[in-house]
Backbone:
């Protein structure tokens, strides 16, 4: 069975996910067979595995850092909050049920069994499992139903490193309070790690000494605040941050992409690759001025499409999107955003809300029906014809890779892409016509489409052509940018953390 290390945090956003990614890369570089594991994740950013299973996007990135193929065993329980209908509970990559919080707490035994079995399967395949906790292990109101922090650490016999975010303030109180609230379980915490420090670490020395004396636990590192790392974020805490321009971080911005900031936004990492082009700025906004003066407007995915569409309408942003399109601005809809841009959305089974029918924004000639089954699959796609948008720049029609995650099916004026689905919860699905275009608007269900370098580059050059600008030369290579970012992250952790101590508590 594998050895294990767990990274827990004093709270959400402490940096657990990226630290796990860094450790996966460090041990991969040492030729250790390593894999990530998060028993339960609550996230709206998700990824589809080769067999059509849905897991947290963070675990997919961690698997990439480890140099292994993501599987559902790396995140056996995924919760996707969807507003008034509670959370969608995904077990082993498939939708199991929609549950309110109390229902899910009553489901703890079944969920824990999924976590235990998934860990056992991983443990038989790898030498080392880097585990990630969720939130804080010391949420005293949730201790009885926790299946991801100390219960998982005990089951795996994992040493625990507790991470505190100093950028939020109160890091020593958070570390000390976590230890005291955990009581006897605090013995599993072997060390502290302080994250996101700005300035001279020597200033912290008195505090480091005191927290070690007060708790009997070592501080094994102080990680600096990493600006513009360029890796996908797990949640929406930093949507306003811009990804650095590839190879030229000081390049002047000439193309502005505005992603409409939805309340239930999901898979916003779809748009990170756009900001890797050398003169593109990506911002998230609900400001009509931004929307109506952009070069491209994107309506992103949503975990509650109907509710977000109603909120856009209440704010008058549907009119702003229509005005943008009438001015010649390219408007794109991704997944839920694609559905919103259509004529109608029907929800006969009340999958998302109490509304059985709602008008869309009306820019695309499609209608969407929500069904009980969820389509989850990796895809290959090709443009079915010309892509006549915003100028005469060529958009690649070569093979595109991505994945689909959606409850609804859209019909009408579709056929922008010819899509091959590799696997899906939708029986019999294989080759389909997908996506729609009308005037300056287009939409698709293909998540990850902008990770295809030539396609993305063609879109950016089309936006430049509309402004009378010459085309850019060669595209940024997004996969290489991510690899460099993972290497950089690993180098920072390697240089600021006592890795010898880490190896000792793992038993390597």
Residues:
């Amino acid at each position: 069975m594998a050895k294990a290390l767990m990274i827990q945090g004093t709270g959400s956003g402490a940096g657990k996910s990226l630290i796990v990614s860094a450790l996966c890369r460090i041990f991969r570089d040492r030729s250790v067979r390593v894999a990530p594991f998060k028993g339960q994740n609550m996230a709206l950013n998700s990824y589809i595995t080769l067999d059509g299973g849905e897991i947290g996007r963070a675990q997919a990135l961690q698997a990439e850092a480890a140099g292994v193929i993501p599987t559902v065993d790396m995140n056996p329980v995924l919760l996707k909050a969807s507003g008034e209908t509670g959370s969608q509970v995904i077990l082993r990559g498939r939708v199991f049920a929609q549950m309110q919080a109390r229902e899910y707490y009553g489901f703890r035994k079944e969920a824990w069994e999924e976590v235990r079995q998934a860990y056992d399967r991983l443990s038989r395949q790898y030498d080392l499992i880097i585990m990630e906790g969720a939130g804080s292990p010391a949420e005293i109101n949730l201790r009885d139903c926790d299946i991801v922090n100390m219960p998982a650490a005990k089951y795996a016999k994992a040493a625990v490193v507790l991470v505190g975010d100093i950028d939020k303030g109160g890091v020593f109180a958070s570390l000390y309070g976590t230890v005291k609230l955990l009581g006897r379980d605090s013995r599993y915490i072997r060390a502290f790690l302080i994250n996101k420090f700005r300035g001279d670490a020597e200033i912290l020395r008195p505090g480091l000494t005191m927290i070690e004396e007060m708790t009997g636990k070592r501080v094994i590192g102080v990680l600096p605040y990493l600006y513009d790392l360029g890796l996908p974020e797990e949640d929406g805490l930093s949507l306003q941050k811009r990804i650095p321009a590839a190879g030229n971080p000081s390049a002047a911005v000439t193309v502005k992409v505005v992603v409409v900031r939805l309340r239930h936004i999901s898979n916003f990492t779809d748009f990170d690759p756009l900001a890797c082009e050398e003169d593109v700025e990506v911002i998230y906004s609900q400001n009509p001025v931004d929307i109506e003066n952009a070069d491209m407007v994107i309506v992103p995915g949503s975990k509650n499409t109907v509710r977000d569409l109603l909120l856009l309408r209440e704010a008058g942003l549907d009119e702003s999107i229509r005005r943008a399109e009438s001015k010649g601005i390219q408007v794109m809809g991704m997944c839920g955003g694609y559905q919103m841009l259509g004529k109608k959305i029907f929800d006969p089974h009340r999958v998302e809300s109490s509304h059985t029918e709602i008008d869309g924004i009306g820019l695309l000639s499609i209608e969407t029906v929500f069904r009980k089954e969820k389509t989850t699959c990796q895809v290959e796609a090709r443009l079915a014809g010309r892509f006549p948008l915003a100028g005469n720049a060529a958009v690649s029609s070569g093979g595109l890779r991505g994945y689909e995650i959606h409850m609804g099916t859209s019909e009408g004026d579709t056929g922008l892409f010819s899509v091959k689905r590799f696997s899906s919860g939708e029986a019999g699905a294989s080759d389909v016509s997908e996506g729609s275009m009308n005037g300056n608007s287009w939409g698709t269900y293909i998540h990850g489409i902008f990770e295809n370098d030539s396609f993305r580059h063609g879109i950016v050059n089309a936006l430049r052509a509309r402004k009378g600008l010459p085309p850019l030369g060669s595209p940024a290579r997004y996969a290489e940018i991510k690899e460099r970012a993972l290497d950089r992250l690993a180098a920072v952790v390697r240089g600021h953390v006592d890795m010898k101590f880490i190896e000792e508590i793992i038993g390597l």
User: Anything to note?
Assistant: DSSP finds 14 helices and 26 strands in the chain.
